[in-house]
Automatic annotation (TrEMBL):
Coiled-coil regions listed in the entry: none
GO-annotated molecular function: DNA-binding transcription factor activity; sequence-specific DNA binding
Pfam families noted in UniProt: HTH_18 (PF12833)
Annotated protein name in UniProt: Transcriptional regulator, AraC family
Keywords: DNA-binding, Transcription, Transcription regulation
Domain of life the protein comes from: Bacteria
InterPro entries assigned: Homeodomain-like_sf (IPR009057), HTH_AraC (IPR018060), Tscrpt_reg_AraC-type_HTH (IPR020449)
Annotated ranges, domain HTH araC/xylS-type: 198-299
Protein species of origin: Neolewinella agarilytica
Gene3D superfamilies named among the record's database cross-references: Homeodomain-like
Amino acid sequence: MQHFKTLSAYLEYLELPAPEHPMLSVFSATGDGFLPCPKESSPPITNDCYSISLKKVVKGNLNYGRTKYDFTNGALIFIAPRQVLQWDESVVYEQKGFSLNFHEDFLKGTELAHQINKFGFFSYSANEALHLSPKEEKQIEAIVESINIEYQNNQDEFSKDIIVSQLSTLLKYANRFYERQFINRKELSNNLLEQFNRQLDKYFSSGLLQKQGIPSIEQITAELPVSQRYLSDTLKKETGKTSTEHLQLYLIDEAKNILLDPHKSISEVAYELGFEYPSYFSRLFKKKEGLSPTEYRERYKMN
């Protein structure tokens, strides 16, 4: 797989204009203009850059992953360094909006360098883009316009700090708008929890638990239409618990049933549930239930 270590090399590969700054590029469609379109297709590639793009499709239908979206109202897409990118001629369109690309080293020595990993949406899939309202779109575009003005002017010793500060503001607004999107998509949130639990049911009933142990969240979400990070953030917003916590609760519920069998030791129960170490099972059970597996068994044993 081809990997691009510099922003210039990456943009050259995309057949886009060279950047004004070796570690930062800003493309913005103003007036009747359109964003420059990258090359028509590409095999899987990676690079060391962050990308933030607002896509407003003027012509054509847009497909990302398994989902078709109407992006005419604006969708904000975030891509992290070393994320695998691939596209074909079906995703080349005339577009308005903007595209910010900056090398990860551009943030070195800044507070944002330590904070950017906290913005989970860089780990979301393309079909989990942030769909902006017209008002939100104007707010984001105003920030990008400020970045673009600084980018186009003669850069000096203050430019980087100013641009990084504006990038930080943009990301904080995106965080706020994603919270709104989670709230507005409660039906999707509930559906995702149901799908998540169905995948757990499928895994447990298949006998894989005994063969492979407790599944990872990545394994469970492989069959879901969203990424691991998006699922966890959605469930956290809707239920107050992450996907990992929901998995643990599922295991505890299963444990409660098995513990009522007096012929099985606590260690046997732990191994049956896929725990490699019975002591970890006991600690988790007590943390979630407030009493140990043995105490639970004594309290609820059949008379």
